[in-house]
Amino acid sequence: MDINQMRERISESFCSIEGHELWNDILQDTSPNNYGFEVDYVDVAMNDIWVDIPNRTFTFKDLTLQFTAQMGASNPEHGYSEDFEFTLSGEGHFEFKAGGQGLEINSIRVNETLDLYADRDEDDE
Q1: Can you give the residue ranges of every domain in the chain?
Q2: Could you tell me which of 2, 9, 89, 104 has the fewest CB atoms within 10 Å of its CB?
Q3: How far is the C-alpha of 99 from the C-alpha of 75, rounded, in Å?
Q4: pLDDT tens for residues 114-123?
Q5: E strands, 1-125, where?
């Protein structure tokens, strides 16, 4: 597998339904906290991913993450759902699959704080 194939696989992993699992830990740590979420859309260009093969790490920039979060209360009757979108950068770790048939992302970390209402607060001033 060459470097471009690796970048493509990482991009595909972020964007796949299975890859949405990668965002669980990150989206549970929003401010304010949410009562559940669903990843709607993830997109990152292959050229915005850099791979360090010997260390099995990668970095990324300009990744678009769209998700719906349950806010206010866990019960939909008392809370509400709201859509959010962030542009993120970060890093992650991967392992090669047995037989060199691809790779699997083990973890990701983002550089930005997911403050759900930061922009709205500034607009209200």
Answers
A1: 3-124
A2: 2
A3: 46
A4: 999 987 544 4
A5: 37-43, 49-52, 57-71, 80-96, 103-110
